[in-house]
Write a structure and sequence with these properties.
The structure holds two protein chains of two kinds.
Chain A lengths: L1 H17 L1 H22 L3 H24 L4 H5 L2 H6 L5 H30 L4 H28 L6 H29 L4 H30 L1
Helix pairs in contact in A: 1-6, 2-3, 2-6, 3-6, 3-7, 3-8, 6-7, 6-9, 7-8, 7-9, 8-9
Chain B lengths: L8 H33 L13 H28 L2 H33 L7 H22 L3 H15 L2 H11 L19 H33 L4 H10 L1
Helix pairs in contact in B: 1-7, 2-3, 2-5, 2-7, 3-4, 3-5, 3-7, 4-5, 4-6
The chains are: A mainly alpha, B mainly alpha.
């Protein structure tokens, strides 16, 4: 069982490592979206500090969605997804492995870039740490919930836009608690409550979303 | 005769056809009575003046917006569990009505908020979660419309519907869980209502009218969906042949 999970993760990470162009697109999208905000709003430091956490978080959601539409699509197109579905292992495990691989490929780079972008927004050190911490708890949620949307929209025309409509409403709690934790660190009101709720949301997503994605995969491929 | 008799689209089509006039007439009459009470009988509120009268539309619409989503989730669950075609049709037929009520609740809320709070919109927990409910309705309709294969589109929509239903208790309890600008409920089953009786009656009658309208419009839409989906069958050919 675990070996199957590791094989799924290893395969996706290897594939991403060999196709760096695809993988880097979402990261650069993240950097660009965040950098556009100071240009549009104006370089006032106090204002940038106030909106910084929210902007980075929203950009992280969008960057995540950009890469999610391909989570199952490439394997579906060349037929390997169907082969994986008829293995004797639970499909939920496949969905979980895919989501974890997506987080390793797309989530971890976001964590590493986020503090640099936070500095652009004039965030103090404590808030920068909190930004990385909240993203570290929050981005797995994005990958897990996103796998549901990716499975539901598998092979549809306009699937990329559709997945945004389906999944963004589900991301709202993660956005509120994640950006709220950074704001708590900024204003000195504390971040524990937000982080705890974010953690609880992660546990819930970890528990339920692989099953839902597995069901969605079955519906989409049958 | 058993209850499952009407689970077949062919029999349900005729049942719905017989029921729609009744529900439509009830909706019409109740709306008339309710609006009469709302505008001519109910007294002016001593705090909010005439502006409060918007709750006669707002509260029933908000109730229905949440309730319809739960009913859709119920049909989706039944459909996924027992593979009944009619359940999926009902879930799909309800969605546009639910989205309409959500939109009406948000819109009338904005009209009420401007004179009372001084703002068309505030980012308060209840308003935000109601807005997300609208997005969930839109997502459901977009997903089911994007998939051509009926079976897949039904089941995918049902799954999304069941995931989204988590939002409904969040809307309902948002005024209790967070300190929001939106006031708490004025109507409760367990204690005396905190408003004049005639106002309550007006609101309940209009809520019932909204209910009847939702049933009538959903049945109407379900009939159309049944015809479209069963177009290869004998009975639809006969039916269409008769009327043409």
């Amino acid at each position: 069982m675990l070996k199957f999970l590791f094989t799924v993760i290893r395969r996706d990470v290897l594939l991403a490592a060999r196709r760096r162009g695809d993988w880097l697109t979402a990261q650069f999208f993240f950097v660009m979206v965040v950098s556009l905000f100071p240009l549009g709003i104006g370089p006032e430091p106090a204002m940038l500090r106030a909106i910084g956490s929210g902007v980075v978080w929203v950009a992280a959601l969008l960057a995540c969605l950009l890469s999610l539409s391909r989570l199952f699509a490439d394997d579906f197109r060349d037929g390997s997804l169907e082969q994986m579905l008829i293995t004797p292992y639970p499909i939920a495990l496949l969905a979980l492995g895919k989501a974890i691989a997506h987080w390793i490929i797309n989530g971890i780079p976001l964590l590493l870039i986020a503090p640099v972008l936070g500095i652009q927004f004039n965030l103090p050190a404590a808030a920068l740490w909190m930004l990385v911490l909240s993203l570290a708890i929050g981005t797995p949620i994005l990958s897990l919930l996103g796998s549901i949307g990716a499975a539901l929209t598998l092979g549809l025309r306009g699937g990329g836009v559709l997945i945004t409509l389906l999944i963004l409403p589900l991301y709202v709690p993660a956005l509120i608690f994640g950006a709220g934790a950074v704001d708590g660190a900024l204003s000195g009101t504390g971040s524990e409550a937000h982080l705890s709720l974010l953690g609880a949301f992660l546990m819930l997503a970890l528990l339920l979303s692989p099953w839902v994605s597995a069901l969605a995969l079955k519906i989409s491929v049958e | 005769m058993n209850l499952y008799y009407y689970a077949s689209p062919a029999t349900f089509y005729h049942l719905a056809g017989r029921l729609i006039p009744w529900f439509a007439a009830l909706a019409f009459v109740l709306t008339g009575v309710g609006l009469y009470i709302a505008f001519f009988v109910a007294p002016t509120d001593f705090q909010q003046g005439e502006g409060y009268r918007i709750i006669f539309i707002h509260v029933p619409a908000a109730w229905m917006s949440m309730f319809i989503y739960v009913v859709m989730a119920f049909w989706s669950a039944i459909g996924l569990a027992w593979n009944t075609r009619l359940s999926f049709i009902m879930a799909r037929a309800l969605a546009p009505t639910g989205a309409m009520f959500t939109f009406v609740a948000l819109w009338t809320g904005a009209f009420w908020g401007k004179p009372m709070w001084g703002a068309w919109w505030v980012w308060d927990a209840r308003l935000t979660s109601e807005l997300i409910l609208l997005f969930l309705y839109v997502g459901f309709m977009a997903l089911t419309a994007a998939i051509d294969d009926t079976r897949r589109s039904d089941r995918a929509g049902a799954l999304l519907n069941l995931v989204g239903v988590i939002n409904v208790p969040i809307i309902y309890f948002s005024v209790k869980w967070w300190n929001t600008l939106h006031q708490g409920s004025s109507v409760s089953l367990t204690r005396a209502p905190s408003m004049a009786h005639i106002m309550l009656w007006g609101m309940l009658i209009l809520a019932l009218a909204a209910w009847m309208y939702a049933i009538a419009s959903a049945l109407y839409r379900a009939r159309t969906l049944i015809l479209a989906r069963e177009r290869q069958t004998e009975w639809v050919r006969n039916l269409v042949g008769q009327s043409a």
